[in-house]
Amino acid sequence: MNDEFDFIVVGGGSAGSVMAGRLTEDSELSVCLLEAGGSGDSWLVKMPVGAAVMVPTKLNNWAFETVPQAGLNGRRGYQPRGKALGGSSAINAMVYVRGHRSDYDHWAELGNSGWSFDDVLPYFKKSEHNERFFNVWHGQDGPLWVSDLRTDNPIQQHYLEAARQAGYPLSADFNGEQQEGLGVYQVTQKNGERWSAARGYLMPHLGRSNLCVETGAYAERLIIEQGRAVGVEVRQGGKLRVLRARREVILAAGALQSPQLLMLSGIGDGAELRKLGIQVQHHLPGVGKNLQDHPDFVFCHQSDSLDTFGISAGGSLRLFKELQRFRKERRGMLTSNVAECGGFLKTRPDLPAPNLQLHFVVGCLEDHARKPRMGHGFSCHVCLLRPKSKGTLSLRNTNPQDAPLIDPKFLDDPQDLEDMVEGFKVTRKLLAAPALAAYSKRDIRTADVQSDEQIRAVLRQYVDTVYHPAGSCKMGVDQNAVVDPTLRVHGILGLRVVDASIMPTLIGGNTNAPTIMIAEKAVDFIRQGR
User: Which of 201, 252, 197, 250 is closest to 25 using CA atoms?
Assistant: First the structure.
């Protein structure tokens, strides 16, 4: 491994894979990509249903926890984050969603010029290779494969029929002209296999002489000299090395670890850093603030259907047959992203955009699948897309190996709880429709929940993340912004943050596709000398 490169990218996830792959298209530039996890190319990653094994465990997963959440009866939440090349795109549910047009227009209104929906749409299209849609909203030439599910699960049609019966609109494309409606998700898969950001952007180019990819490499501190980021201290195989960047250090460690590394390097709230004995390189009080995440409640229903995942003799025989089908055809249950259906709804018709997202899961997954249950079932997540609650990310101590203190402050704002009550009712109406009710043998969590007070209680008992932390290094021009609209860190030269942490406000949807878009746009900033 060389000691000096033009660019050092910290984090080989959805953004980091894009940055390294795109920047090395220029043979004159050298790039070193640092990833703390592994190679991200095992069959557990490639087989889509492997997510159900990785998310509840430490396989390719940091498996963080939050601090106790007052809004959740003092419970600690769970925060799985990908730990491999591809990052969370190596363990997620592969749902391809961009968010609502108004999300990005709002970013621009906050002073982030160049980030309106019309500005970012070309980068979504540039990243995308969509197998089904050929229109002005989609791209066909990008590295990120987007396709229809190949599970052939009949439950999808029952879900759509239930939506009709409940009077909810349907949508064939959540990334087209209109987001609102329920339907079947498109996924980041190719030929029935997971297509992570690393598979799309990085792995085809590992042979490039100007690309160095190091796995098992823990970035411990950024090296700041005279107000400029010039390198990274890296621990790999028990040894500490110093790598230097001639042009830029690009921090792409995600919404939980990018602010952690900034603070460990002396960039953050000066008073807080001094309390830990960290030498302040630059007082930037917004680092770690503005943490936002989608609060999420899960309905769980027991079912006799072997079209759902579960633990039973019949289910085991079915999975054995499905394994053979996957090997031969790359179709069937093992190509499932588990959250096969879903969509976007409003709690009130006068809202300008949907404020709820549903993920319909063909399995009864309790506590992020960490509590196995005998038998079969299905679940339905409902999350609040634009919560008012904002949390923080702070240092536990000065040890880079220790997890940060993650405090999303779920349901901290009373309005979030009331909006979730309405979301609960909207989702229950869907599940009560005959087409889905016929699949249900028992409502495990909410059978006796009727009054608003009972709904509030069950929400506080079970709400947790739907895996979309963002905003902790927010982009902007105000005093709490961490990066400017070109993603350069305020007050430090040669340093950018490129990941979901720069989102000034949480977008209305899954965050993987937007993170890839952010990185595509950042590459252009660099190429344009901005």
Answer: 201
For 312, the token pair is: 């039973």
Q: Show the DSSP H helices in 200-312 as ranges.
A: 258-264, 270-275
Q: Report in angstroms the alpha-carbon separations of 23 from 2, 9, 198, 252.
A: 18, 10, 14, 14
Checking phi first, is residue 74 left (phi over 0); if not, alpha (psi -120 to 50) or beta? left
- Structural domains of the chain ordered from first start: 1-148+191-291+391-409+468-474+511-530 (3.50.50.60), 150-184+295-384+412-462 (3.30.410.40)
* DSSP H helices in 110-172: 117-127, 155-166
Residue 372 pLDDT: 85
For residues 145 and 413, the answer to whether their CB atoms sit within 8 Å is: no
CB 171 within 8 A of CB 179: yes
**CA-CA distances (angstroms) from residue 506 to 138, 203, 394, 511?**
22, 30, 19, 9
Residue among 171, 99, 173 nearest 133 (CA): 173
**pLDDT for res 154:** 97
Structure tokens at 302: 């027991």
> How far apart, in Å, are the Cα atoms of 158 and each of 94, 161, 387, 437?
22, 5, 30, 10
Q: Give the torsion through C-alpha atoms of 439, 97, 55, 329, to 10 deg.
A: 70
**Three-state SS for 301?**
strand
**If we measure between CA atoms, which residue out of 441, 423, 298 comes closest to residue 368?**
298
Asked whether 391 and 404 are in contact (CB, 8 A), the reply is: no
Q: Locate all alpha helices (DSSP H) within 213-294, ordered by sequence.
A: 258-264, 270-275
Residue 80 near residue 62, CB atoms below 8 Å: yes
Per-residue pLDDT at 1: 57
What is the mean pLDDT for each group of 10 consecutive residues in the chain (530 residues)?
92 98 98 98 97 97 98 98 98 98 98 98 98 97 98 98 98 97 98 98 98 98 98 96 98 98 98 98 98 98 96 95 97 98 97 98 93 94 98 98 98 98 98 97 97 98 98 97 98 98 98 98 97
Known catalytic residue at 468: yes
Residue among 497, 442, 508, 450 nearest 472 (CA): 497
How far apart are the C-alpha atoms of 278 and 472, rounded to whole Å? Answer: 20
Q: How far is CA 274 from the centre of its chain?
A: 32
Res 517: pLDDT: 99
Q: How many CB atoms lie within 10 A of CB 101?
A: 18
Percentages of the chain per state (helix, strand, coil), in multiples of 5: 30, 30, 45
Taking the C-alpha atoms of residue 145 and residue 47, their distance in angstroms, rounded to an integer, is 15
Is the full-model pTM beyond 0.90?
yes
| Residue 85 · residue 216 · CB < 8 Å | no
* Catalytic residue selected from 100, 294, 468, 490: 468
The residue count for the chain: 530
In whole angstroms, give the CA distance from residue 470 to residue 409. 13
Q: Are 86 and 13 a contacting pair, CB within 8 Å?
A: yes
- State the pLDDT at residue 188: 98
